[in-house]
Amino acid sequence: MGSRRKSRELAIQILYQFEMNPLDINEGLDLYWTEHPHPKEISSFAEFLVRGVQVNKDKIDNLIIKAASNWSFKRINPVDRGILREAIFEFLFCGDIPYKVTLNEAIELGKKFSSEKSGSFINGILDNVVEKKPNLKKKV
After folding, report:
1. Average pLDDT, the chain
2. Each residue of 116-138: b (16+ CB within 10 Å) or e?
3. Could you tell me if 25 and 54 are in contact, meaning their C-beta atoms sit under 8 angstroms apart?
């Protein structure tokens, strides 16, 4: 497994932790890394993703709400919400990561950490986000 994939997995777990138990971001990250230490090349990208999602959560959530027209935002599984948030953060702020890489990673995270149907749900929402804001789709 690549270090970025592992970082994304950790980011999803940390975002879920914040979803279930809202803490100050520094306190939550310190607690997580104390309990689950990882090498710096993995933890630094994971922390970058988590901090980025937390800082931009309102903007990201608004994109999800617009894209999930048939779903109430609160009805979206919290794991799927975290995966969507993390992927959209990458779309918005990680210009060095190709769109398809982010999309495929999000789908795989959904399959691994959520339900059997999560991958297609995540794919559909992210496609809708990009359809409504095509400038998010990076050149591959």
Report:
1. 90
2. eebbebbeebbebbbeeeeebbb
3. yes
Taking the chain, what is the end-to-end CA distance rounded to the nearest angstrom? Answer: 22
Assign 3-class secondary structure to the chain: CCHHHHHHHHHHHHHHHHHHCCCCHHHHHHHHHHHCCCCHHHHHHHHHHHHHHHHCHHHHHHHHHHHCCCCCHHHCCHHHHHHHHHHHHHHHHCCCCCHHHHHHHHHHHHHHHCCCCHHHHHHHHHHHHHHHCHHHCCCC
pLDDT band at 131 (very low <50, low <70, confident <90, very high): confident
What domains are there in the chain, each with its CATH number? 3-136 (1.10.940.10)
